[in-house]
Amino acid sequence: MKFSKLPIPKEELSKISKLVKKLTKFRVVRYSLFLLLIIVVVPIIFFFLLKPKPQEDIIYGINFSNKYATQLGLNWKQSYLAILNDLGTKDIRIVAYWDDIEKTMDNYDYSDIMWQLDEAQKRDVNVILSLGRKVPRYPECFEPDWWKNIDNPKLKNLELYEYVKETVKALKTYDSIKIWQVENEPFWPFGECTEIKESVLKREVEIVRNLDNRPILTQDSGEGGFWYPTYKLGDYLGISMYRRIWYDFWGVFLGRSIYFKYPLAYWTYKIKAHIFGVPPKNIIVTELQSEPWGPDINSKLSPEEKDKTMSKRHFISTLNYAQKTGFDKFYFWGAEWWLLEKEKYNNPFYWDTAKALFR
Question: What b/e string do you get for 218-247 counting C-beta neighbours within 10 Å, with b at 16 or more?
Fold first, then answer.
């Protein structure tokens, strides 16, 4: 049996038309419709004008933290050599931890970071060297205890500047250092840190520039930062790229942490770069999520807990997502965990999959 469409009576159409006209007389309705139009149409326009193209020659690098490797129960030197020799990466981001280097005021010990630089230099590995008081890995800030006990803010800043100066002077002889990173997400409120003011970061950058002519990278949150205030102080902008996390979002959920997937399409990063005035060619994805983010350190999470934010399927989908963003430099975040999975749990998937990219 076929049913014919019933036409809307002219009287009803007339009533609807009059109702719409009455509603649009109200300013709040007009503004709401205009705002809705912008929300719907503008992203579509941006997408077609600025749609990113996957790059053909993508550089993949690795983040490495000797502190994090140790926390996972690994021998950090053996882990570092495995990353260089077995994975075969030619690009790595490593960290000069202030609390290890200057445990007592004016006494500097660069042995750990110099060992890493020596091994990188032997293999012609390109290094991004991160320094400052806020650097990669939780709790984000790694200041010496003696510095925390100084009450005078000006004196604290002077000691920080002195540390930055001495560190660059001690390490600038290494040709393997291609980029200096000064502070890590300095304006993003994450970690157990006190505020880093723009004037302080600006002075740190000036100190590095006065001592060495290599480019400087400043870092911001890829998902939440405003980018340009951070980028304008350096030559490159480093950003994070996370897909699935476990976080409390600054107490919004009454102190409870939740599992969360960022609702961001792959093309939003490039559009964000244009909106905030950062050239995409000057952006490096320095933290591409490739390990779990859960309620405890990854060595203590159950398989079920780990899979909520980083499973084999998530690893591949995150990699595909990143490749479509149009950027050409990605540094994996979590190689230490890959090694733990491979050696302790007989799960070489992450290690071997990444290894294929480096070869």
Answer: bbbbbbebebeebbebbebbbbbbbbbbbe
Q: What distance in Å separates the CA atoms of residue 29 and residue 132, rounded to the nearest whole number?
A: 51
CATH classification for the domain delimited by 57-358, as one of 3.40.50.200, 3.30.1490.20, 3.40.50.300, 3.20.20.80: 3.20.20.80
Sole residue written with tokens 């071997």? 352
Handedness of CA 116, 118, 123, 126 (dihedral sign): positive
Tally of residues, the chain: 359
* Residue ranges per structural domain of the chain: 7-50, 57-358
- Looking at residue 128, what is its pLDDT? 99
- With beta carbons less than 8 A apart as the criterion, state whether 248 and 256 touch: yes
pTM exceeding 0.85: yes
Half-sphere exposure (CA, 13 Å, Cβ side) for 275?
A: 14
Instruction: Give the single-character DSSP code of 104.
Output: B
> Residue 203: its pLDDT value, please?
98
Q: Which ranges of the chain would DSSP assign to H, the alpha helix? A: 10-24, 27-50, 66-71, 76-82, 98-101, 111-122, 145-148, 153-171, 198-211, 228-231, 268-275, 303-307, 312-323, 335-344, 349-358
Encoded tokens for 327:
């950027």
* Residues lower than pLDDT 70 in the chain: 1-50
Q: Tell me how far apart the alpha carbons of residues 86 and 77 are, in angstroms, rounded to a whole number.
A: 14
Determine contact, residues 290/350, Cβ cutoff 8 Å. yes
Q: Decide if 330 contacts 60 (C-beta within 8 A).
A: yes
At what angle are helices 27-50 and 10-24 packed, to 10 degrees?
Answer: 90
What backbone torsions phi and psi does residue 194 show, to the nearest 5 degrees?
Answer: -90, 165
Tokens of 199: 């004037």
| Location of structure tokens 């905030």 | 276
**First-residue to last-residue Cα distance in the chain:** 65
Decide: helix, strand or coil at residue 76.
Answer: helix
Task: Say what the pLDDT of residue 85 is.
Answer: 98
